[in-house]
Specification:
Two copies of one chain form a homodimer. Chain A is mainly alpha-helical. Helix content of chain A is 66%, strand content 5%. Chain A has a three-stranded antiparallel beta sheet with strand order 1-3-2. The longest helix of chain A has 31 residues. The first copy, chain A, is elongated. Chain A binds a DNA duplex through helix 3.
Chain lengths: 167, 167
DNA sequence: GTCCTCATGTAACGGGTTACATGATTCT
DNA sequence: AGAATCATGTAACCCGTTACATGAGGAC
C-alpha cells in the first residue's frame, strides 16, 4: 500500500520513470525510505490502470526508450487524502537487542554494540552531507530538512546508548 | 529465521509452551520484539524436527494439555553461534517522514507529529515501568536493562525531534 | 570489443499478520 | 450459564527482497 503513495509522492515532485524512482528512493529518500524494482514496476502498472498516473509521450529526440509517468489530478487527490490519514507505524524490532537479551556474558555481544556505534557514526556523517546539500539546493523545503533531522536525532541517541552500554 | 532464535532465546531462560512464548513476547520482549501464533507454532514444529528443542513430558497433575518445550544441547549451541554473528539490521522506514516529504504545506502533517509526540511520551512512561520492574525482579540482568535503555534513548530523541519540528 | 550504466520487467521465495477453527478450563 | 482466558494450530494474504531475463547505448 505505502509503496503506491511513495511513488505518487515522488511523481508529485516531477514526472519520472520506474528507474528514476528507484534512483530517487536511493539518494533523496534513502534516509527513511527505499523501493525495489520488484515493487515499483507492478505498482506503476497498477496505478496507471487506476488512472492515478499517466504515461507521458516520449520526446522525439529520445534515444533510449523510457516510460515516464506523471500524476493525474485524481492521483494528486489520492496523495493528499493519504497524507491526511495518520501514518501506520510498524512495531519496532531489533535483532541486536534480542541478542543482548539472550546473552549470558556481555563478551558475546560487545562487538555488535561497537559495530553499531561505528555504523551510526558513519550515518551521522552521511546525514550531515545530505543536510548541507539540501541547504544548498532546496533551502525552502523545511520539511525535507526535518526528515534529515529525524535521522540525526535518532543516530545520536543510538550512539549515546552504545556509549552507555559499553560502560 | 530470526523467529527461530527468538524462540530459542526465550526457551534458554526457561521451558515454555507456544502460548507462553506469545505472552513472553508481549510482555518481556515487547519493547523490541514480538511474535504471532502464525509464526510460533510452525517454528516450534520445525525446531523440534531438527532436535534443537524437545517436548517435555506433561506432569501427571496437569489439567490443561500443554506442550512445553525445552532447549536441547544442540539448540543451546545453535543459539550461542547465532549470538556471535553480527545482527542483521533492516533499513529504517517511516511512513510519517514520507508524508512530511511529500507535504506541500505543514498543516497537513502537523497533527501526525503531535500524535507521534503523544505516543512516544506514553512509551517513555511504559519504559520507566519496565525499568522499575527489572530493577526489582532481575537486578543482575544488566543486559536486560540495556534493552530498555535503548528504548528510552530512542523515545527521548523522537520527542526532541517532534519539538524541534513543531517550531 | 568489452564493460558499465540505463532501462523494464518477472518469478520465486521468505517474513509476517490476520482471521479463522476448535475446544477445554476457570472465573463471575 | 456465560464470559474470559488458556491453548494449539492452519490458511489466506500482503509486503518486500533477490535473482534472473533481456536488451540498448555509451565509455574506454
Amino acid at each position: 500500500m505505502t509503496t503506491r503513495y511513495a511513488i505518487l509522492g515522488l511523481l508529485s515532485i516531477e514526472p519520472m520513470s520506474g528507474y528514476d524512482i528507484r534512483r530517487a528512493s536511493i539518494d533523496a529518500l534513502s534516509h527513511f525510505w527505499h523501493e525495489s524494482y520488484g515493487q515499483i514496476y507492478p505498482a506503476l502498472a497498477e496505478l496507471e490502470r487506476e488512472k492515478l498516473i499517466r504515461l507521458l509521450p516520449q520526446p522525439e529526440e529520445a534515444r533510449r526508450p523510457r516510460k515516464v509517468y506523471a500524476l493525474t489530478p485524481k492521483g494528486r487527490r489520492a496523495l493528499q487524502a493519504w497524507r491526511k490519514k495518520p501514518p501506520v507505524t510498524r512495531p519496532f524490532r531489533s535483532e541486536l537487542l534480542l541478542k543482548l537479551f539472550t546473552a549470558e556474558a556481555p563478551g558475546d555481544v560487545l562487538k555488535h554494540v561497537k559495530q553499531l556505534r561505528k555504523e551510526e557514526t558513519a550515518r551521522l556523517e552521511e546525514y550531515a552531507r545530505i543536510e548541507k546539500r539540501l541547504a544548498r539546493e532546496a533551502p525552502a523545503k523545511t520539511l525535507w530538512k526535518a526528515t534529515v533531522r529525524y535521522g540525526i536525532h535518532r543516530s545520536r541517541a543510538v550512539i549515546a546508548w552504545c556509549d552507555e552500554t559499553l560502560r
